[in-house]
Each structure stands twice: as C-alpha cells, then as structure tokens.
Amino acid sequence: MSESHSHSRSADESRALHAVQEAADNVRAGRREFFKLTGLSAAALGAAGLAAPDEAAAQGHGGPYAREFVLEARRLYMNVGTTGSTPRDVLRELAQNNREVAADPLTSFATQTLRNTIAAGFGADPNEIVMSFNTTDGMSKIMAGLVLPPGSEIITTNMEHPGGNGPMAIARDRMGLTLRRINLPTSDAMSDAEVLLRFQQARTAATKAIVFSSPPFLTGVRLNEKQLCTWAAREGLISIVDGAHTPGMVDLNFHDMGADFFAGSGHKWQCGPGQTGILYVRNGNSPAAYTKTATVYNGFGTPTTDNVVLNLPAYTNQNALPRFFPTVSAAYSGAPGSVLANGERSASQNVAATLMSIGNPSYPALKALQEVCSMWDRWGRQAIEDYLVALAQYLRARLTAVWGARCLAAPYDSATPHFARVGLTAFNPFSPGFDFNADLTVAQAAEQTAASGAAVTALREQFNIVVRNTNCPHSLRSNPALAADATTTGATTSSHPLRISTHLFHDARDVDRLVRALLQVVPRR
Predict the structure, then answer these.
(1) DSSP state of 267
(2) What local confidence, expressed as pLDDT, does residue 481 receive?
C-alpha cells in the first residue's frame, strides 16, 4: 500500500493511510469468510472464473475485491457515482438468468423471494422493498403516489438531481404545490446543525413534506438522514430521501433512518446491472424490533424453499402511514380492504408486491441485483462502508495537503464526521485561493468551467483516469442567501469541482496515482 513516488506524508495522511490498511484487512476477512461459506477454494475460484487476472492488480485497481471485477486493467475508473461495475460472478449468473427465463418463461414473474432475500440487509421488511428500475423511477413513483392538498409546500434543496427535480415539478404542477428550496452549505460552512437549521427556518404552516438527496450528486457530502427524517416526523411531515449513491456504499437501515420513502440506485455503488434500483416505502411503525418468517433465495443458482426468520429493527418513525397510491400497478383494485385502497395501507399488507405488479419485469436483471446484494451482505456491509470511507478520507487528506483546507466540498476532519461518511469526494482547485466557496466574477466562472472540463479530458486522455465534474451552486460565503438552484445557470453562483469515487476495486496506490496526475493537470500552489 506504499507510494511509488517521493512524498513526505503529513500526520493526517499517515493516519488516514493506516485507517485504509485496517479497513482493508477487515474487508478481506469478510471475503475469506464468504468463500468459506460457499465452500470454494482458491483453485476452484480460478477454475470458475471468479478470480481476475493478475494484470488487474499489477496495473492498478488494487482494492481488497479488485479481482472480483472486470474493469479494464490499465484504466483507473473513479466515476462510480455515475455507474458501477458488476462483479464477474454476477455477470456469469446474469447470463444464466437469461437462459433460465428462456427455458422457463414463467420464472420471470417470481420476484417475492428476491425481495425476501435482500430486505433485511437494508433494515427493512420484504413488503417494503420494491426492486425498481433506478433512482429516477423510484422518485417518480413516490412523487406521483403522494396525496397532498393544493397549496401544500415541499421543502427541498438547491442541489437535487434532475431525477428528483422532474418528479417534484410534475407533482407541483399537477397538485398545485409550492417547492421551497434551501441552499445547502458547502466547505467551511458545512455542518449537520447548519443543514437542519436551514430546513427548520424554511418550514411554514403549509409545509407537508421534505425531499433531499444524501449525498447530493454535486458535492458528495452526506446529509444526516436520520436527523432530518426524525425532525420531519416530529413535525408531522413526510420525509423523502433521494439516496441514489448510498445502496452499496453505506450500511443502510431504513427502519432506523426514519424515512417515509427512499429511492436509490442498484447500478452505482451496489454494482448491479443497469436498470435496477431500490425503492423503500415505509409500511409500519412498530416501536419494537420484530421477526418475520420468509422464504429466501440464497443466490448463485441455489434457490431454496426453506423458511427463515428475519430479524427486523424497530421503526424510528412511528407516525401514521401517509396516504400513497400505486401509479403503475396491475394489482390495484380499490376494493375496500385491498392493498393501498384509497391510498391507505397497514403493516400486514404486501405493498411492495402491489407496486411491483407491472407485468413482465426484467427478471434476469432483478435476480442479478439480488445476487450482488447477497454478496455485499456476506462480505459485510459495515466493513465495506468503513473501507470506502477510509479510502475517501485518505484521498481528502492528500488533497488538503496540496490544495489547502478549503478545497473540498466539506472540510477534511480526521474524526470522520457524518457528512464525510461517503466514498464520493468533490474538490475545487480552480477557484481563487483553492477555496470551494470563493465568490466568482462572471469571467472567473467562465474560466473555471473551461478549466474543469479540460482537466477531466486530460485525466482521461493523458493518464487513463476517469473522473467527472459537476456544475455546483455553492453557498457564496459573502451572501449564502444568493446560492443558486442547480436547475439555473447563473454564472456567478456556479462552480465546477471535480468529483471522484473510491470503491472496493481501489486502494491507496490508486489514490496516489490520481494525485500525481492532478498535480500535472490542475492549478497548484
């Protein structure tokens, strides 16, 4: 894990590197345990095609699970925030899944056992987990299914993705709602307390719901989902989380989070195939943990009819369930007592089955999503989160050592506060003083746009490193109230940071390689 070039480490960098090494050891321990459970030896793994060529580790992508992925060896792919890479054994199973459906077409309708298998890994009841197409699909189903009276207000943020902004705009125009946007703080203005305060200050008597992304795709700064959702519950508000980046990155517990609704991606950090997502619809309010018997699918071609007992956590949010209609469903009848009749439901109802009754789904893709979720469960979701966060913290420590404390979307803190517990990192070496929040003139904003785009291109074409940049409204320290909505294009209120993803197929050597390249393509002291 040592660097291959001369660099005198700061104390923060050394501590961060040590944390990466410890987290990698824990992840590898989970990997060994996983293979013990499957009964596969190293030789058997190679024969089955589960071990990648040595070239991958030699050329980069040296993370604890690098051998499980088929990424091009010489390219350093650090844009998981756009889409991930499906593991090689799941790719093999995906092909088998297609063959199974071709041999027995009616198999494609059997999705309950898939949800039974993955739900507990997300701290949810199987009847609350919908295997959706992607985050945008989930957000569309949520916003279209809500019942809010005309004149209601929704508090949201200035950094929402179009996949959330579009469904909210439709709901606004269809139901006569008002969207009130808070300006999310960035860099040295960022704190959990400040984010909560801005939501609290925006609330009026007409507020009925809050919608926020965590982390926002523009900055990769994690909001305190539980803090915001429990505040909303205390105020009698509906909480909706656009969590596109958290499945597979964060060890999620939906019951504990307290959200009423959550939409996430299956193809980003969870590394499932395209057109897969996770939609959670809260369907209970039990103040105590409970158990549920379900039939599970153990993955990798080994279905079982054995019943297992799922241990499910208590609900932090114990409010009554808000009215919610299925917008695409062949199972809705509206008959008294039927599932979601008149938008009402109870914990005994299988809401997810009704929401997934959409005709013939892409069963091979859904089954592959279940398989990769099962892999994560067996490898250890908390260990995976710890590794991704530790590696991101090492990257942040390295960036801070070169470009200063204010170059990041959230300040580097070796204590790893909540807002840093993600594998996404946004930093801006293009603003005056390398300050993420620097006020910009129109000319400076235009120069930054060009410089940021040129850096992304140079990293890809000259160094074979793939990252992306974003068009980010920032808090404008001189007047935070002026921060733009991300749907606008105000030149003086938008910056263009680079956004970098670190995952299981990366290690500290990959971070060092990126930093060496950055030193040649972006401004430095």
Answers:
(1) S
(2) 59
For the CA atoms of 10, 11, 14, 18, the dihedral, rounded to the nearest 10 degrees, stands at: -160
* Residue 438: exposure state from Cβ atoms within 10 A (0-12, 13-18, ≥19): buried
How far is residue 217 from each of residues 163, 222, 433, measured CA to CA in Å? 11, 10, 24
pLDDT given for residue 5 in this prediction: 45
User: Which residue's structure tokens are 């040295």?
Assistant: 188
How far, in Å, CA of 172 to CA of 166, rounded?
A: 10
Q: Which of 202-216, 346-360, 412-426 has the lowest mean pLDDT?
A: 346-360
Task: Find the angle CA(65)-CA(73)-CA(390) to the nearest 5 degrees.
Answer: 40
The span from the CA of 374 to the CA of 107, in Å, is: 20
pLDDT for 361 beyond 90: no
Instruction: Give this prediction's pTM.
Output: 0.91
Q: Place 36 in a pLDDT band, splitting at 50, 70 and 90.
A: low
Q: Cα separation of 496 and 472, whole Å? A: 6
Can you name the residues that pair with 500 across neighbouring β-strands?
Answer: 425
> Of 34-38, 54-58, 256-260, 499-503, which gets the smallest average pLDDT?
54-58
Q: Which residues neighbour 72 within 8 Å (Cβ) at sequence distance 6 or greater?
A: none
Residues 341, 250: contact at Cβ < 8 Å?
A: no
Using 50, 70 and 90 to split pLDDT, how confident is the model at 66?
confident
Question: What's the pLDDT tens digit per position in 433-449?
Answer: 999 988 887 788 889 99
Domain assignments of the chain as residue spans, ordered by start: 11-81+380-521, 105-377
- Whether the domain at 11-81+380-521 and the domain at 105-377 fall into the same CATH topology: no
d(CA 490, CA 492): 6
d(CA 373, CA 502): 19
- Strands 290-297 and 303-312, by their bridges, are antiparallel
Beta bridge mates, 471 = none
Residue with tokens 């009847």: 127
CA distances from 210 to 34, 63, 156, 179, 225 (A): 39, 37, 6, 10, 11
Phi, psi of 374 (to 5 degrees): -65, -35
Q: Which helix (H) or strand (E) holds 390?
A: helix 381-403
The DSSP bridge partners found for residue 76 are 465
Say which DSSP state 374 is in.
Answer: H
Separation CA 295–CA 309 (nearest Å): 9
Residue 49 CA to residue 303 CA, distance in Å, equals 21
CATH code of 105-377, in short, is: 3.40.640.10
Query: Are 501 and 78 contacting, i.e. CB atoms less than 8 angstroms apart?
Result: yes
Torsion of CA 448, 449, 454, 456, to 10 degrees: 100
CATH number of 11-81+380-521: 3.90.1150.10
